[in-house]
Design a protein that fits this description.
Blueprint: E1 17-28, E2 31-42, E3 46-50, H1 57-64, E4 72-77, E5 80-81, H2 87-94, E6 97-100, H3 112-124, H4 129-142, H5 158-170, E7 176-180, H6 188-205, E8 208-213, H7 216-222, E9 225-230, E10 233-238, H8 240-245, H9 252-255
Parallel strand pairs: 3-8, 3-9, 6-7, 7-8
Antiparallel strand pairs: 1-2, 1-4, 4-5, 9-10
Length: 257
Amino acid sequence: MIKTLAITPSIVTGKDKVIEIRNLLKKFGDRTVLHNVNLDVFDGENLVVLGRSGTGKSVLIKCMVGLLKPDGGDITILGYSVASLSESKLNELRLQVGFSFQGSALYDSMTIRQNLEFPLKRNLGIYDRKTLDEMVITSLKEVGLEKTINQKPAELSGGMKKRIGIARTLILKPKVMLYDEPTAGLDPETSAEINELILQVRDKYNTASIIITHDVSCARQTSDRIVALIDGESKREGTFEELKSANDKEMTHFFNY
């Protein structure tokens, strides 16, 4: 049955809660972007936050990693209360949270090898050439792109850049993955490949993931549960089929595809 309660019930039995958001509020001046946002994510679960463009989805994910400061409410990730963290503790948390940016966020001046080595050197202090090579090649194999190691981002397709961005995130072995519009700008076939990769990441690494998207096909393929963000508020929660079959007027536009 479709849930309309503000707080997501603990329906994933036997799993630890990894992310908890309660009554999140975010404003920009007089404009309220997020309000009364509530959700839970459990270990090994893919939660899709589904919403139209401009409904605050990307703002939500930036609040979660401390890139934006909320104006109210609480965010707890892996036991860390994000709002109360010092800069050093926030960096400690970020090492455990993989953030796959909408635009892949690769450095154009670097080769793919250098892009993947960058977080290893900067965050983990790894400079040993053999170790770097092993970790980079392993991460590229995970996304099926080991042959791109000496290429630059400009030489790759949009879908390949998305895969490399995910590989660069996975190289630090995060416990939580945050995907910001992972299929944006991709054709249906490439989108399906990225969706499958998201499932593979969950299954192999047992990550808890939040997938921010307006793409209903992405939501259908990747989600264990969905929270619908409507006018900046988490108004509906359920599985894809529950939300689709509920005949809810506020959800109808999502499923007319």
